Amino acid sequence: QITLKESGPTLVKPTQTLTLTCTFSGFSLSTSGVGVGWIRQPPGKALEWLALIYWDDDKRYSPSLQSRLTITKDTSKNQVVLTMTNMDPVDTATYFCAQKLVIPATFAYWGQGALVTVSS
Amino acid sequence: QSVLTQPPSVSAAPGQKVTISCSGSSSNIGNNYVSWYQQLPGTAPKVLIHVNNKRPSGIPDRFSGSKSGTSATLGITGLQTGDEADYYCGTWDSSLSAEVFGGGTKLTVI
């Protein structure tokens, strides 16, 4: 059974750095063709992809947010960490992590999401 | 502004059929696989369709997907009240080097 779960602060202040951890089970991020991504969703709005990391440590970032994002993995702990710098109230959203499979090129399993509010 | 364009809302009666369109370009839908996701209220998205028209294990055959050129379509037959949700298309954009999603379509079963 594949599960993913996001963890991190629920409230951050403007200009602070957000660190979110995705802890997963049921698969290994050292398996060829497997990746983990982060997607966010502001309240009442659409999904927005943020970043991806693959089994071979290939990393991809949203072009519009690339300068603020860093994604890393700890294969031994089955965790993926996303950091986002210089947080702003517009970054208030539910942050999801999801397993990405190269084949069939889809986000196959999703975590429940973690709501992060940016406010002073 | 989403890279992929979906209608904001669709509606149909129980038992009827509905289609949801997703329009893109040659850099995304035209040359990459499309997935469709269902997001029930207050929950995480779930994949309904991948590789344009394939259903993952456990997804009923009431859900179908198709792709033609730079557009994709999700079809749902035998509508149930439990199908009320937001539906998103998604794919890779080779020019942006980014995953892209549509703006989402809210399905109402009335």
Mean pLDDT reading of chain A: 97
Subunit organisation of the chains: heterodimer
Radius of gyration of chain B: 13 Å
Secondary structure: helix percent of chain A: under 10%
Shape of chain B: globular
**What does the radius of gyration of chain A come to?**
14 Å
- Contiguous low-pLDDT stretches of chain A (5 residues minimum) are none
Q: Give me the count of strands of chain B.
A: 9
Helix content of chain B: under 10%
Share in β-strands of chain B: 35-45%
Helix-strand topology string of chain A:
EEEEEEEEEEE
Q: Return residue spans of chain B where pLDDT drops below 50 for at least 5 consecutive residues.
A: none
Most extensive chain interface and residues per partner: A-B, 21 and 27 residues
Shape of chain A: globular
Q: How many helical elements of chain B?
A: 0
The CA-CA distance between the termini of chain A, in Å, is: 40 Å
Question: Number of helix segments of chain A?
Answer: 0
How would you describe this protein?
The complex is a heterodimer of chains A (120) and B (110). Chain A is globular. In chain A, the strands form 2 sheets. In chain A, strands 2, 4, 5, 6, 9, 10 and 11 form a 7-stranded mixed beta sheet that branches. Chain A contains no helices and 11 strands. Chain A is an all-beta fold. Chain B is mainly beta. Chain B is built from no helices and 9 strands. In chain B, the strands form 2 sheets. In chain B, strands 1, 3, 4, 7, 8 and 9 form a 6-stranded mixed beta sheet that branches. The radius of gyration of chain B is 13 Å and the shape is globular. The model of chain B has no long low-confidence stretch (mean pLDDT 97). Chain A binds chain B through residues 37, 39, 46-49, 52, 60, 62-63, 96, 98, 104-108, 110-113, and chain B through 2, 32-33, 35, 37, 43-47, 50-51, 54, 56, 88, 90-92, 96-104.
